[in-house]
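Known limitations

Structure tokens in this collection are predictions and should be treated as such. Users comparing against experimental data should check residue numbering before alignment. To illustrate the layout, the record for Glycoside hydrolase family 65 central catalytic domain-containing protein is reproduced below. The input appears on top and the generated tokens appear beneath it.
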Amino acid sequence: MPQATFEGDDINPSTTIFESKILPESPEGKLLYRYFPTVGNGHVATVVYSDAVFMNGLFNGFKGETHRARLPTQNNIRLVDTNGSRSNFQNASFSLDVFKGIFIEKFIIEDFIIEIKLFAHRYYHKIIVNQIHVIPINPKPSPLALNLIHDTGPISQDISFDEETVFEAPVNSKYKCGKVNQIEDPFYQHTKPTVCIIFMELPDILEIKSEVIHTFIASYDSDLYGASLDFTAVANLISKKQDMKILDSHVDAWSQVWNDGNIIIEGNLELAKVVHGCLYYIISSLPVTADTYSYVSQFYGLSPGGLANGALFMDYQGHTFWDMEIWIFPPILYLYPEMAREVLNCRLRLIQAARKNAQDTGYRGARYPWEGGVSGRDVTPECCPENYLLQVHITADIAFAVRQYIELTRDLDWLKIPQPNYPTNGCGFIRELAEFWVSRITYDPAIKQHEINGKICFILTFFDK
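Generated tokens:
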């Protein structure tokens, strides 16, 4: 069955803001979440208005069925009137500001302008934030009541959670922790990965009389301590009515990203928007390399669908491919070399699995998988054996990315100094990539040449419309 498509008009003249009067929907009126924007910060990400949050490195499923584990969102918040309707919301608009990393729903109802913001905080990076800013239009507005709809979606099929428990914080909060149901490979993972979510208890009704900002947050991390660091810090700001400080610190962090590197295109608004949009979606799935309030977890790679996608049998299931090094890496390297280094580091950290992959297939050095998840083993689905058997150019793609990195940065420390908990340094990494290719070479006396057989090279064909 063909997938529904959507074409909407972008009404904003800014090169960094995408705005529409309507949400993507089919002719039958069904919302098309495939076309919805996403917010993320490399640690967590979500499709706006969806029931899922995905977290870097959290996968569920065995081998070829491993996929991003769905966390039931605590950040899918909508407002309706007391009759459960939005029909009297006037001048509604929906926008993604990629310069600030914020999705905004805006409308007018009676005497108030309502702005609902959603963002994955870039400084308190374990946190996803909802902010509802109410602005009176008239000097003496009439009181207004709005119902708050909080849809977490169905129970996760990927994670078994414990019961919700009260979390001690300056705002009414609870938490729940759980484990994924199925590990990727018991040879590399000896225990099931864990996750904890801390979230605020939300009111059913917002009573509005004057200008006010309501901030609601949820924190996601691999353990309760990690989730509590950012949650407690931001909860303290909420309790002190410092809601704008929460927003400003996020905007400042994104502003620093664009100050570090940007591509400015003049005279072609459509192209400028495409470029800024592409950079935003890549950056929001890569780890933060600037200062953050709490520690940044190990990065497990960037899938073509980004961090906000990757459910079972969808969007490559969040797997990492050659796309990361060949297509995504070059612009990030030139603009944000520290992020590019983390792309290489995620491969380096998993080199022990690549060594075993080479050994198991009769070669030396490090052979990286065609599809990678969290363990470093090949997680290509069983449907496609020719890919994991013959798509060996992935190891050359990684080597090519390393070469580009060294040529541009001259990062001798990365080459020479092993980082804590890393199996080797950059030089060792390069050597093992080369050893794999040397072990693949055979000599053909008939043509008096060395060859590399048993492989698939990539050929991309582009068709005109």
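For this record: The radius of gyration is 24 Å. The mean pLDDT is 94. Please report discrepancies through the issue tracker.
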